[in-house]
Design goal:
This protein has a 4-stranded mixed beta sheet, covered by helices on one side. It is of the alpha+beta class. The chain has a single domain, classed as Ubiquitin-like (UB roll) (Roll). It has 2 helices and 4 strands; from the N terminus they run H-E-E-E-H-E. 24% of the residues lie in helices and 29% in strands.
């Protein structure tokens, strides 16, 4: 499956979950699974006073940051949501040379 097809599949699964409601926050969460060497995509729906809903959207069997960057760019063209990353501590984007997720500080 190409990156374009992957992004389209994620969008097809995410768009029905995205409803413009009052006081509701939507986010994408991308998790790097080091054990299976894959990216996991989730949709998070948060409304104060309600249960936070996390819906799995898709997983991509790749650990190439360039692939992730292309997929997120294609998704962001249609659906502009905040993206939260997990498991990317100390890893940099290929094109921007900035950290995806800041490295954790030492507690010393």
């Amino acid at each position: 499956m190409t990156n374009e097809q992957t992004a389209q599949l994620i969008l097809e699964r995410a768009l029905p979950l995205f409803k413009r409601e009052l006081n509701v926050q939507y986010r994408f969460k991308v998790v790097l699974d080091h054990f299976d060497e894959q990216f996991n995509f989730y949709m998070i729906r948060y409304k104060p006073g309600h249960i936070t809903r996390v819906t799995p959207l898709h997983h991509v069997r790749s650990s190439w940051i360039a692939d992730l960057e292309e997929i997120l760019d294609r998704i962001n063209q249609q659906l502009k949501l905040t993206v939260v990353f997990a498991g990317f501590e100390g890893i940099k984007w290929n094109s921007k040379n900035t950290y995806i997720q800041r490295p954790k500080r030492d507690a010393s």
